Model the fold of this input.
Amino acid sequence: MEKPESSQAAKTKALIVLIACGLIALSAGMFYFLATGESATKEPARATDLRGMVWIPGGTFPMGNDKATEDHFEERPAHQVALKGFWVDETEVTNAQFKKFVDATGYLTDAEKDLDPRQFPNSPPEYLKGGSLIFKPVAGVDPKKCGAGNLPWWKFTAGATWRSPEGPGSTIRDRMDHPVVCVTYKDAQAYARWAGKRLPTEAEWEFAARGGLSGKPFVWGDEERPEGKYMCNHWQGKFPEVDLGLDGYLSTAKVKSYPPNGYGLYDVAGNVWEMCEDWYGKDYYARSPKDAPAGPPAGEDPENTGYGQHVIRGGSWLCDEGYCFRFRVASRQGLDTLTSTNHAGFRCVADAPAPAR
Done:
């Protein structure tokens, strides 16, 4: 549970600014515009390119995990879900793919935008800078004693964007085949619209991630490390102090670094969390409908910001085997709508017709 669960970009930086300026009374829509710079202009969509996508036939499956511990109660109860067929990206969206989108549209991500000091004249300058929440190792911390609002391994870093995911001076030059990170839910939606796709529902994500295996804890089966082999990119060592890198990675890995699941999808466990379309509800499974569930009407909002969290799935390179252990296929948590981090990305789905037989 290495999540920045209730940390908006700089907690989220816009919220701190609003508090500092005494502008909490602003409407939610106005706050969102000021915090993100969103306008009514939408990136033009193009025809869906199905290359690099996999057809997932519809079906019914048990979603969730009745065996989940109290630390992961949000995975309960297991419940039957029925879905129609859909297409899904075989990998997480990479830096190279996201760059094509940015080059074609001139799009600026939320992390690349500063807030206007004229709008917030009383705010400290550091809270006006664009950036993301970046993981920093911390010694002497028991993560299980840290509350959701006190996760000292997350640091707001000005200048941390998809182009420089560790902050100023870092680069993706040699990581074009790694998943894009330091993007928000809105950024992911913008890319998906441009590509003629969309973000998956949580149910679609889990159905695809299971790869045809029913009731298994991992996307590859029952054992965490069959024959001692690491099957995904995750944390080994004492979290959040030191990652031993026994799987060969200390941060993100290039896509397709591990074998695919039964449907031919890569990295649905570990590497980076993947954003879903649904709002996140910890107890949603208790009332989820069977047919094509699309999540609750609003997301969990632990910091009372008025924005809520969307679902993220799959775990990341920061998930360890003790504190987090969320690279299991039923694992789920929320990420604030305006938050960008260096451990969350996305993949897309499409509603095109099934392939010809």
